[in-house]
Amino acid sequence: MANAASRRMAGGGGASFAPHRFDRSDLAVAAVLLAICAVLYWDTTRWPAVPETLAQNAPPTTFPRLLIGSVAIMALMLPFERVMKERNGGSLLIGGQARARPIVFVTAAVITLAVYGLPILGALPVMIATSVLLPLLWGERRYLPILLFGVGLPIAVTLLFALGLKVNLGFGWAGALFR
Question: Ranges for the DUF1468 domain (predicted)?
Answer without folding.
Answer: 28-169
